[in-house]
Every structure is written in structure tokens, then in C-alpha cells.
Design a protein that fits this description.
This protein starts with a strand and ends with a strand. Strand 8 and strand 9 form a beta hairpin. By secondary structure, it is of the alpha+beta class. The chain has one domain. It contains seven helices and nine strands. This is DUF3891 family protein. InterPro entries: DUF3891 (IPR024992). Pfam families: DUF3891.
């Protein structure tokens, strides 16, 4: 879950919904993406493994607050990552490779033995998948991996903030770096925003489903954020 505290309540956005938003953002970009369908599938489904974990929130009994993806217990999180990558690989090896590369990058400088085992497992998976790729796929691995990470950040920056409010999450206050340039979401009212500098070919509307829980762990509401990305 992506969890945002709002007064006495908690706003929950499911990871896979955030992933689907990442794919929508990528699909609207002006830059050429090759191979298109496989890369968009990877970006849209990179958080597929969270689907089972996000069926119901997990609460930290010590703090009486919900776990988010940032502090979720390591073992079940890595098991979910592994399952999600495997499902994407089963659909398409190239898309699965990009997701594997994305998740392995989280643990490059972490010495936790469980995380290290996961990282080595994914390196092994990548080595087995790579000989299957076409020349076009191989040539675009680096560019598509960077695009996945960028669209992941673009989507997270939206999910971490209340619509209409300037970005305040520490990860994104200074913008999002991509290909040597920093990009920033700028709101124009509650329902319209722009990416500065612009990377999109046309204006488009996106939706983000969310749930609201109170401090007693009760579901008190659900709705959908709807807003238009302007060019």
C-alpha cells in the first residue's frame, strides 16, 4: 500500500493501481518507446506482486499505524516481489526482465542476507532471460529501465500528495531527475496539473482509486481521484 496520513485518517492507494497509473503516463509520452507493448506492460505491471498483500492493510502493532510499502516487513515483501516478477515473466520475458531489474536495483547497497539472496536470485533470472531477446529489445534495455523508474516516480509523486497541493514528499520536493533534467508536477487547481517541462503528446485524464481508514482500522470510505494532465 501507498499510505498517506490525512488528519485522523489514512488514505490507502494500492500498489498495482499506482503501477497501472505509471503505465498510463508512459503511454502518453512523446518519446519513442521500443518495443512499445512489452515495455508498457512492464511499467504497468511492475507492482503486480503487491496485489495479494494489498487486499487488506497490515498494521504495525507497536505504532498502531498501517505499514506502507516503505516499511513493510522484508520477508513477505520479497516473496511478493518474486511472485509478481514471475507472473510478468510468464506473460512476456522482456517485460519480466525489466521488472526484475527494477526490483533488484532496490537492494544494490543492502547487506541484509534475505535481501542479498533476493538480489542474486533476480540477477540469475535476468541472465537466463537475456539470451531470448531480439536485437531491438537488447538495444533498448537501459532506456526502458530508466523510463520504468521515471514513470514509477511520476506516479508515486502523485499518489503521495493530496490533489491540488504542491509536492511535499521529501523524495520529490526537488523534482524528479530523468535524462539529465528535473521534472516537477505543478497543480493548476484541484483537478488540473502539468508536468514541467512537458513530456506528453496531449492532455489526458487519469483516475486513482483509493480507500480511507480511520485510526481504529475501520474502512470509512472509498473513492477515485480524477484529474487532467494538461499540455
Amino acid at each position: 500500500m501507498i499510505v498517506r496520513k490525512k488528519g485522523y485518517y489514512y488514505v490507502f492507494i494500492k500498489q498495482h493501481d499506482h503501477g497501472l497509473l505509471s503505465g498510463e503516463l508512459a503511454a502518453q509520452m512523446t518519446q519513442p518507446i521500443r518495443p512499445l507493448a512489452k515495455t508498457l506492460y512492464a511499467i504497468s505491471h511492475h507492482d503486480w506482486g503487491w496485489e495479494s498483500l494489498d487486499q487488506s492493510p497490515l498494521w504495525n502493532e507497536e505504532t498502531n499505524e498501517p505499514y506502507s510499502f516503505e516499511d513493510y516487513p522484508m520477508l513477505p515483501k520479497l516473496e511478493a516481489y518474486t511472485d509478481g516478477i514471475a507472473k510478468v515473466v510468464a506473460h512476456d520475458p522482456y517485460a519480466g526482465f525489466l521488472c526484475s531489474k527494477h526490483y533488484a536495483s532496490f537492494f544494490t547497497n543492502i547487506d541484509d542476507p534475505v535481501a542479498r539472496k533476493f538480489r542474486e536470485q533476480e540477477y540469475s533470472r535476468q541472465n537466463k532471460l537475456r539470451p531470448l531477446f531480439t536485437e531491438e529489445e537488447e538495444e533498448n534495455i537501459t532506456a526502458n529501465f530508466r523510463l520504468l523508474r521515471f514513470c514509477d516516480d511520476l506516479s508515486l509523486a502523485l499518489c503521495f500528495n493530496e490533489p491540488g497541493e504542491e509536492p511535499n514528499h521529501p523524495w520529490f520536493k526537488d523534482g524528479i531527475l530523468y535524462q539529465g533534467e528535473r521534472y516537477q508536477w505543478v497543480w493548476e487547481g484541484r483537478y488540473h496539473l502539468r508536468l514541467i517541462p512537458n513530456l506528453f503528446k496531449q492532455s489526458f485524464t487519469v483516475e486513482i482509486p483509493y480507500q480511507v481508514f480511520d485510526g481504529y482500522r475501520r474502512l470509512v470510505g472509498r473513492d477515485v481521484y480524477r484529474f487532467t494532465v494538461m499540455v
